[in-house]
What we know:
The complex is a heterodimer.
Chain A: H1 2-19, E1 24-27, H2 32-45, E2 54-57, H3 64-77, E3 81-84, H4 87-91, H5 100-120, E4 124-126, E5 143-146, E6 174-177, H6 185-195, E7 206-213, E8 216-219, E9 234-239, E10 250-253, H7 259-268, H8 286-293
Parallel strand pairs in A: 1-2, 1-4, 2-3, 4-6
Antiparallel strand pairs in A: 5-6, 7-8, 7-9, 8-10, 9-10
Helix pairs in contact in A: 1-2, 2-6, 6-7
Chain B: E1 4-11, H1 18-28, H2 34-47, H3 64-69, E2 76-81, E3 85-91, H4 98-107, E4 111-117, H5 124-135, E5 140-146, H6 155-172, E6 176-181, H7 205-211, E7 224-234, E8 237-243, E9 249-250, E10 254-258, E11 262-270, E12 278-279, E13 284-289, E14 300-303, E15 310-320, E16 332-336, E17 339-352, E18 359-360, E19 370-382, H8 390-393, E20 394-398, E21 405-417, H9 430-436, E22 442-447, H10 454-467, E23 472-476, H11 477-481, H12 492-511, E24 515-519, H13 525-533, E25 540-546, H14 549-555, H15 560-565, E26 587-590, H16 596-606
Parallel strand pairs in B: 1-3, 1-4, 4-5, 5-6, 22-24, 22-25, 23-24, 25-26
Antiparallel strand pairs in B: 2-3, 7-8, 7-14, 8-13, 9-12, 10-11, 10-14, 11-13, 15-19, 15-21, 16-17, 16-20, 17-18, 17-19, 20-21
Helix pairs in contact in B: 10-16, 12-13
The structure holds guanosine-5'-diphosphate.
Guanosine-5'-diphosphate binds next to α1 of chain B.
Amino acid sequence: MALDVLESESIEILREAVAGAERPVLLYSIGKDSSVLLHLARKAFHPSTPPFPLLHVDTTWKFQAMYAHRERMARESGMRLIVHRNEVGLAAGINPFTHGSSYYTDVMKTEALKQALDLGRFDVILGGARRDEETSRAKERICSFRSAGHRWDPKAQRPELWNIYNMRIRPGETIRVFPLSNWTELDIWHYIEREQLPVVPLYFAEDRPVVNRGGTLVMVDDGRLPLAEGERPERRSVRFRTLGCYPLSGAIESRATTVAEIIAETAAASSSERQGRLIDTDQPGSMEKKKREGYF
Amino acid sequence: MSASLLRFITCGSVDDGKSTLIGRLLHDSRAVFDDQLRALAADSRKFGTQGERLDFALLVDGLQAEREQGITIDVAYRFFATPARRFIVADTPGHEQYTRNMATGASTADLAVILVDARKGVLTQTRRHTRIVAMMGIRQVLLAVNKMDLVDYSRDNFDAIVDDYPPFAASCGIVDVTAIPISALAGDHLVAPSPRMPWYDGPTVMGYLETVDAGGPPASGPFRMPVQWINRPGPDFRGFAGRVSAGVVHRGDHVRVLPSGVETHVTRIVAWEGDRASAAPGDSVTVTLADEVDVSRGDVIAASAAPTPVADQFEARLLWMGSHELIPGRSYLLKMHAKEVRASVTSIKHRIDVGSDALLAARTLALNEIGLVHLSTVQPLVFEPYAVNRTLGGFILIDPLTFETVGAGMIEFALRRASNVHWQALDVSPPSRAALKHQRAGCVWFTGLSGSCKSSIANRLEQRLFAEGRHTYLLDGDNVRHGLNRDLGFTEADRAENIRRVAEVSRLMVDAGLIVLVAFISPFRAERRFARSLFAEGEFLEVFVDTPIEACEARDPKGLYAKARSGALPNFTGIDSPYERPESPEVHLLTSGRSPEECAEQVFARLP
Ligand SMILES: Nc1nc2c(ncn2[C@@H]2O[C@H](COP(=O)(O)OP(=O)(O)O)[C@@H](O)[C@H]2O)c(=O)[nH]1
């Protein structure tokens, strides 16, 4: 019942966002939340194909399995896929190792996203963020207003009453819309199970080569991960609760190979899903800071 | 997962223990993870008020700045679940912005948890919170009497508080009140019965929240669905996407499209999984209709037998949320369900003081103020009173320049049903033009000697009117003689023609709905009588600016008196041409010793 309500509410939001937009786009990050968001979008506009493209901001450091999944979903949905990379950052060789996670994220994700949005002149950007992810998200609106330059001013947000969304903006301003605002991590998995949605296989446990870095298990997904002296990848049964750039995503040890097992593990979990994300903890209040600067 | 969803709002004054209560509910329902607890422990040492103990209040404080200031600045949404239910909590702060934030949080809530401090009981604040949640349509309240540990868990204390509250709540429209004695800090009666209050045998907070009947839109009652989007993948499919806001619709049901009123029936209820036989309140669906009817976004599809009313004038409760005050008569954008129209507040019946429930006279509404207003929309709106249907009766007002959301309103009833559901052109007449500007049009005619200060006074008056939001125009010798009357000189005939033209222009401007200020010497009674004759009774106000000629000549701002005395300016009023004093002007301004502001104020006071 709760899932039905959440689903209907998200569909209503997607339709309002699109009706109020000139150039909408769905920010597709390939993870489980994006899978649910894409599915809801297809439901909302069925039998039409969703009237907007998918945008993937590619840092070039995603897991190989993510790229494969992205191609598959674009094909199945029949939606146009836009892939954007920050070419300036690439040419400068910005990577998570030499430049640190904070600077790397800034250039390859935040900057790249702004470039892609400006390039496409998108005014309404659909994203899969949830309020339960992080404390500063709890106060985020469903339709989050961004001033020119993609800045988020937590004091200039519009009050949101009932299910009425004020989608009016002036030139240069944009709105980020989060239809999954009221979903929790568990809701996402229950929904994936109920709707039998395909997700990246990395969410399921499997023997994978990992190195242990200060308690964080980093998967050796390709030959680009620099190994320290004497550091040896070992095979462990791991899975991921969130997916991003592989050098920055921590795996958890697990034997859960089905969605039902993941749900059981998540329900009993003693740490939050963001624990595996290295970028959240590198500065105090760091997520809020990143958001002000335009990070999704 | 078949658990249902309950949305509630928590209200309380600062320090009543709201954050502590929510933090504990999250913690006790295992919605807090170890890494968050570790962060909490670190935060508790840094920002907390509980020494080495965990400060649960910090769990629900989000933004860095507010953490440092120790206040909550907005609505935060929290999630937790038990095997029985999923919960969404809107946490709203108890400080000055409370009205706006609380209304926002309450707008989507099924129930309110209102905290009171056991030592203080029901305060003005508690009543205020109760009135706000009641106004937003909440009909169920959990009164959490907190800090029972500080009153020795005393039953008398609890009973005393609980006695006066339900009658008061009932007077606001809240008939379902459950009071529970708790200690948010110690955990009494949150999830388990408390051995420290054996005298209490009611539910715990969690027990109540898990089992209370959770409102939601009624399935009974006629079907209504606002159309959000027209789904047209190709020439053979035309569907109308929306979310059912009341009633149930079945395939084949007769429906009416509003505001057009066209009747047809539902042919399909389309969903991803396949066609459905019916759809219930809260469902997002796409329907197709039998006939090629004209349907746009913002229309409402309703049960044929009980269509939704349509109107363009309403009485509504309005909560102002803008930093600039409401300007009656100004055009705002009104958004209700999927419809956006131009609308203006035509009058404010009164302001409602939520602290005392007193009704106060008001000319405007400022941030966080609530009023009962009359509202007029440029196009008819498909609506239902808010008490009947939140979706079809709740609206927001958007500033047409900044696009900020500046108001939230709830329709009480229509003042006048649109007699005809089709759009009818209004009769555009002089009174309707003036009414659109929210004013009475008229002509204020200043007469007096050259140098008598007519223009300064007229200027001040115009500024005063402008500041009040009135639409004005000032005609004086300078802006008329350079253009329209450039061909006229100062002979008696030309002077008469000059005044005739000015009077006719003023007449046109009054028809256009303006308040026209005319500042001309207009020395002859006959001309002034002519000007007056063009206007209706009460539309013309003659103002005699009575300044002695000696004073005018002493001022001589343009050096005209000097020129006239030397003979260089023939036919100069007061020197070699007469000034006929008005016999019965509406306003007689004796200017000596008074500033132009004072004089302008005297005229302003005479305006209708
Ligand atoms: N003794 C006692 N103190 C409490 C209780 N609940 C909250 N407090 C304290 O009251 C103060 C304000 O609590 P907080 O939750 O921040 O209140 P808020 O402003 O309503 O969110 C804090 O110092 C709490 O520790 C209670 O049940 N008993």
